[in-house]
Amino acid sequence: MADYKSPSWGKNILKITLILTIAVGFLPLLSFSKEESDSPTAVREKTIEHQLDGKLLLPQGIALMPITDPVRPGNGTKGQLNVVITAYSSTPWETDDDPFVTASGSLVKDGIIANNYLPFGTMVRIPEIYGDKVFVVKDRMNWKKGNYHIDVWFPSNSEAKNFGVKRTYIEILEG
Question: How many domains does the chain divide into?
Answer without folding.
Answer: 2
